[in-house]
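BACKBONE GEOMETRY TOKENS
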Amino acid sequence: MAKKSDKDKANSTGTIALNKRARHEYHLEQRMEAGLSLQGWELKSIRAGRANIGESYAVVRQGELFLFGAQFTPLIQASTHVVADDRRTRKLLLHRREIDSLIGKVERDGYTLIPTAMYWKGNKVKLELALAKGKQTHDKRASEKDREWARDKQRVMRRHNRDA
């Protein structure tokens, strides 16, 4: 049996999809890892890099967590025998005590569950969920101003170190 090359190892591990807008739109407080219940064609499309979690969110229904809005574009050759719904609701897999604590925070404290990253852990697909509260527009402007100030500060420090 042939050994896997370094390129194959890099493709089989690591990040699948990121939700970069989540940090801008929400105050992210607590993060946790959840498994995903997937069908075969979805796994093949994930391996092909066709996953998007940019507009997705998690909801608690009847004591279980479900992922809404995540898009896995089906591959034509992999989904010929099934009707592929690229935005179907997918079940999230967590321990009961984790789900119970999330239910309390979401229903009583007004938090939202936002997926921030999807990645491989071994041969399993994992989703990083964050408890989040929405930012107001003035909060978004303040964080943008802080980001620009940090960038300008780095430029000045680089220029100062180069001149010295």
User: Anything to note?
Assistant: The chain has a mean pLDDT of 81. The CA atoms of residues 44 and 78 lie 7 Å apart. The chain has one domain: 15-134.
